[in-house]
Structures are given as structure tokens and as C-alpha cells.
Design a protein that fits this description.
2 copies of one chain form a homodimer. Chain A is mainly alpha-helical. Helix content of chain A is 67%, strand content 8%. A 3-stranded antiparallel beta sheet of chain A has the order 1-3-2. Chain A starts with a helix and ends with a helix. Chain A binds a DNA duplex (30 and 30 nucleotides) through α4.
Amino acid sequence: MSESIGFLLNDTARLFRRAFNARTRDSGITALQWRVLSYLSRHPGIRQGPLADIIEVEPITLSRMIDRLEEAGLAERRADPTDRRAWLLHLTPLAEPLLDDLRRTGRAVVAEATEGLSDAERDELAALVERVRANLSRRECLKEKETL
Amino acid sequence: MSESIGFLLNDTARLFRRAFNARTRDSGITALQWRVLSYLSRHPGIRQGPLADIIEVEPITLSRMIDRLEEAGLAERRADPTDRRAWLLHLTPLAEPLLDDLRRTGRAVVAEATEGLSDAERDELAALVERVRANLSRRECLKEKETL
DNA sequence: CACATATAATAGCAATTGCTACTAAACACA
DNA sequence: TGTGTTTAGTAGCAATTGCTATTATATGTG
């Protein structure tokens, strides 16, 4: 009579976001915004569409997240010289010190969350969740093809 | 250079919700609403506050979810004879056939998500995520006490 | 009893998200 | 070149969420 793994994952993810947001309320950065900043710091110059795919939100949702990050002076859109419809996303220098803080916070939350798990168990957890994510991600793609 | 378990859990949970919502778009029931219905079917008569705690949302959020379920004729508030501030939550008979459908959908989504995992791996996954959830949940409680 | 404090639920507001429809630009191909 | 299709991104709208403040009721204490 245990709960479904779907409920369990959703609850846990919500608690993760809540723990993170509670620690970063001052900076006004949410868990999802941080995700974008973190990705951009490692892969500058990506377009909006592919980044929306990567973080698994709708393109319009990412578009408005970038609006807010631009307003906050943390990110910027640069024209793509090869395609006038597209924007290339970059961080501003202002984002770097903030990212350092956020990384520390992220590590702290993960440390809390995985307290009592051995290194092997953490690896096992990540591997299993990744397989579930891949299953659901693949399904999504198949569904899109079906509708063609 | 792997991604944090926090990001991974959030992505996977979002994909779960998306897969579920895509299959139930006709019925207009979301993954979180289903969660409420499912809990009420097994534990009728709970108050709003405790149920909000259980599904880990704010009380006001649950209150408005119940508003919608009442409008849809699926749930109802009954006065608590021992406390005139409180409501006791119940499902209506209308909810039962819907719940059967939703359970089938839920099982199908979980089957997709855990495709390729052995029974032992599914148990292991659930056990590990549950430990993470418990860590974060416990922390939440501690934090509330700190603020007193 | 009087009065302070705590609790259950809700209203107002602002922020975020996604669905749908749309614009502009690129591409395909006769 | 012309024309139809696809792609990148965005605006409008409705729905949902959480923070803060508020109402009504319950409980504790002198």
C-alpha cells in the first residue's frame, strides 16, 4: 500500500525547491532560474529553444525567464549572426559572484537531502532516477512523432 | 560533471506530471488534484490543514484545490462538529468511477517511467527517494521550530 | 469571567506557467 | 524567382501558486 513512485518523486522535488528557495529568498533567485544561470555559465551562446528543451519547460516559459534575468541584469540576448530570428544567450559579469553563492547553497541543500546515504547509494540513486528520466523523455519524443 | 541530484529529481518530476497531464487532459484533472482525490478515497474525513501538510502545499493552495473539486462535484466540505472553524473533506460518489480511470492512467505512466528496471531496482529507487524526502521533510520541521 | 494567544481557513495581490495563436525569418523546391 | 512549409521566438489569456493579512473560533491563564 506504499505510495506510487510518481507521487514520491513529485513530493521530493517540491521539497527540494522549497529548501532552496527558503535559503535564497533574499537574492530573489528561484531554483529554476538558478538552473538556467548554471547552464549558461557552462554553455554560453545557446539559443532559447534548445535550452528550453534541456530544462524541460515550454519555449515561452523560458522566454519569460530570460526576460526577468535580463531585467535583473544577469543575462543578455545577443543577435545570432546566422539567423535573424534567434537569440544567443549569455551571462553578464554580474552573474558570476551570484553563481558562486548559489552553488554553495545548492551543495548545502543536496548535502542535507542525502544525509545518511553512502557514496554508493547516492550514485545508485542518481543512476536510477536518470533511467526514469530517460524513459519519460524518450516517450515524450515518441508522442510528438505520433502526432505528425 | 554530472548534474546535481536536485536538478535531476525536479526534471523527472516535471516529466511525470507532464506525462500524466497529457493523458488526462480530457478529464481536466491534474496530477496534484489526483493526488488529493486518491488520498481522500483512502482517508475520508481529514481536515484541510493536515492534508495540505501531507501533500506538501500551502493551506491556501489546498483550499483552492478543494474549491475546484467542489465545483466539479467531486469533493465536498462537511462541518466539523467538534470545531466550527474546520471542514472535514469527503469525496462524492461521482469521484469513484473517475478514480478508477485515474488509477489505470497512473499505473500506465509508472510502467512507462520504470521500463527496464527490475523489481528490485524499483524498490531500491523508492527506498532511496523516500530517504531523501524524509531528510528534507525533517529539515523543514526543524526550520519552523527555529523561528519560534 | 476577561483577555491574550493560538489555530483553521480564506481573501487580495503579485508572480509564474502553459495553451493557443501570431509574426518574422529561413528553407525547400518547382 | 515564387510559393508553400517549417522554425524561433513572443503576446494574450486563463489557471495555479504562494506570501501576507484577515476573520472566526478555540484554548489557556489570571
